[in-house]
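Q: I'm writing a short explainer about Mitochondrial enolase superfamily member 1 for a general audience and would like to include a description of its predicted shape. Could you first generate the structure from this sequence?
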Amino acid sequence: MGPDDMHLWVLRELADEGTKLFPIIFEKSWQSGEVPTDWKRGNITPTFKKGKKEELWNYRLVSLTSVPSKITEQILLETILRHMENKEVTGDSQHCFTKGKSCLTNLVAFYDGVTASVDKGRATDIIYLDLCKAFDTVLHNILVSKLERHGFDRWTTQWGSVLGPVLFNIFVSDMDNVIECTFSKFADDTKLCGAVNMLEGRDAIQRDLDRLERWACVNCMKFNKAKCQVLHMGRRNPKHNYRLSGEWIESSPEETDLGVLVDKKLTMT
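A: Of course. Here's the predicted structure. Afterward I'll give you a sentence or two in plain language.
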């Protein structure tokens, strides 16, 4: 249950009455762009992600909210996703909140390409990037301008702050316009890779990193450089160094990607 102490069982038993009342509330909220105060509250519980358990930033806060609020968000989500699909707002690189895509499709599509490159004898580098508190630091005015650019009406833009995780796909969709290497996103989890047998490959990856850094500056975002890593794969890998905001990105023998541990031999566990 959320902070309204309204159990799902109660809503199910009173479904006939609820179908008369909730549409009125939903429509009023949607057209006014105002969210009921109770829907903004949540029972917060920390969920451990990875790393040292004694460090606070290794926990993700999960909010248990009102069930009617979740129903409204689901209705809006379906409409927004349909619009995004029809307008082709998000590119092939995005796998989160996208019909027919998931963590699994992200991993399979990306590492199929990496495996094919390594099997051809090409040294390949993967850069794992992490945006600092991505969902918390998105500026509302920038998000609204991007929504309007993609044809969303004012009601959607007013609800944008509530549907942040969904609309984050739109916020980062223009990343694809600046990248020349292989690029993959799952919400804010971003990675790019390229063959680096030749110096041109290394330079292409560095150019992409510079472009992403400029994108972050324009959109008032920051990369968490401490969590950005490079994984060198393939035999005779020259193990190039890469910079992000003037600082070298550390190399790692393995990296956890969407819950899967990947090492430089392309072993996944």
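A: For your explainer, you could say: The chain has a mean pLDDT of 85.
Q: Perfect, that's easy to follow.
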